[in-house]
């Protein structure tokens, strides 16, 4: 049933840009409007930054860098990004860019720009579900991270990083749909008063419910299955995301993580999303994908070498 809803909602929206062309209006502040009056987010958008998620310890207490300080800091930051990029095959499309408004962290709350202290459960979950890639087991595909296995991308919530990401937004009065280029992942945000899912129904991407608060789109996502973690968050996490125009070509995006089981306090991330040009290209993850057999065969070769070592 859900797949039918997806096809109907997305199919109708693909026709809407043509039907609505010439009907979009703008209020005095320049916010693009749909024919039914809400802010019009439809189109292509990109987000990426060299600002780290958390404020580095050496920059404690410094929210923003001067241009001179940013230039000096980015020397080491770019070196770290290049090392990560070089671990990815054919990753020349990584264009790290600068800092977001000179900021030293994408986390804006707590004010120290750091993820709050994890509870014992959150720390254990982080260790079990999100170890560094090179520390993961490789006994079988199921040991590898969900992104490597193309199960889902990194669009829940949206996370800005050195590798820029592209997305397309479709709108109707009842839905907002985000189509992420990486992993070609759909996020469907219903805006009607749908009932909450039963607690026992758990999904990889959770279940979202959206609403308008003035000109801000707000959506909350719950009912995760707990098979992956956002920095230690658990299956009962509640993600609250917000999106609003700051100017006709820029959206301000924010998400807040509410999870008392995993963190000592909620925490909030903010960054801009800028208008981009399309099209999106299909992210056909497993067509000609040799990564998984290479990872597993490499692990077997390492095991043989370890056994042969004196």
Write structural notes for this entry.
The structure is a single chain. The protein has helices spanning 2-20, 67-86, 120-129, 291-308, and strands at residues 25-26, 32-33, 43-47, 107-109, 165-171, 175-180, 185-190, 207-213, 216-222, 238-247, 250-258, 267-275. The chain starts with a helix and ends with a helix. It is α+β, with helices and mostly antiparallel strands. The longest helix is centred in the N-terminal third of the chain and has 20 residues, at 67-86. The strands form two sheets. Strands 3, 4, 5, 6, 7, 8, 9, 10, 11 and 12 form a ten-stranded antiparallel β-sheet that branches. The protein has four helices and twelve strands; from the N terminus they run αβββαβαββββββββα. 22% of the residues lie in helices and 24% in strands. A hairpin with an 8-residue loop joins strand 11 and strand 12.
* Count of helix runs: 4
* Oligomeric state as shown: single chain
Mass-distribution shape: globular
Radius of gyration: 21 Å
Unreliable spans are 1-25
Strand composition percent: 15-25%
Q: Please write the string of helix (H) and strand (E) elements.
A: HEEEHEHEEEEEEEEH
Through-space gap between termini: 59 Å
> What is the SS-derived class?
alpha+beta
**Overall average residue pLDDT:** 87
Tell me roughly what share of residues is in helical segments.
10-25%
Number of strands: 12
Main sheet record: 10 strands, antiparallel
């Amino acid at each position: 049933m859900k797949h039918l809803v997806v096809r109907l909602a997305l199919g109708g929206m693909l026709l809407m840009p043509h039907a609505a062309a010439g009907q979009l209006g703008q209020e005095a502040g320049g916010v693009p409007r749909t024919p039914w009056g809400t802010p019009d987010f439809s189109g292509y958008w990109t987000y990426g930054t060299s600002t780290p998620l958390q404020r580095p310890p050496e920059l404690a207490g410094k929210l923003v860098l001067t241009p001179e300080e940013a230039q000096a800091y980015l020397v080491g930051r770019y070196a770290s990004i290049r090392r990560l990029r070089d671990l990815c095959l054919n990753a020349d499309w990584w264009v790290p860019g600068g800092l977001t408004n000179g900021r030293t962290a994408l986390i804006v709350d707590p004010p120290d720009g750091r993820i709050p202290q994890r509870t014992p459960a959150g720390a254990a979950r982080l260790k079990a579900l999100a170890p560094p890639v090179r520390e993961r087991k490789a006994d079988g595909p199921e040991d590898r991270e969900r992104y490597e296995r193309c199960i889902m991308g990194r669009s829940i919530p949206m996370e800005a990083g050195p590798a820029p990401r592209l997305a397309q937004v479709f709108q109707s009065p009842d839905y907002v749909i985000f189509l992420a280029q990486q992993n070609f992942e759909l996020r469907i945000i219903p805006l009607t008063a749908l009932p909450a899912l039963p607690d026992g129904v758990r999904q990889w991407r959770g279940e979202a419910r959206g609403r308008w608060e003035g000109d801000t789109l707000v959506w909350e996502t719950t009912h995760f299955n707990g098979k992956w973690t956002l920095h230690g968050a658990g299956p009962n996490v509640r993600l609250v995301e917000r999106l609003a125009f700051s100017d006709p070509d820029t959206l301000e995006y924010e998400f807040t993580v509410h999870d008392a089981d995993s963190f000592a306090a909620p925490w909030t991330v903010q960054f801009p999303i800028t208008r981009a040009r399309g099209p999106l290209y299909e992210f056909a993850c497993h067509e000609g994908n040799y990564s998984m057999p290479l990872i597993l065969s490499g692990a077997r070769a390492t095991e043989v070498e370890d056994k042969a070592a004196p």
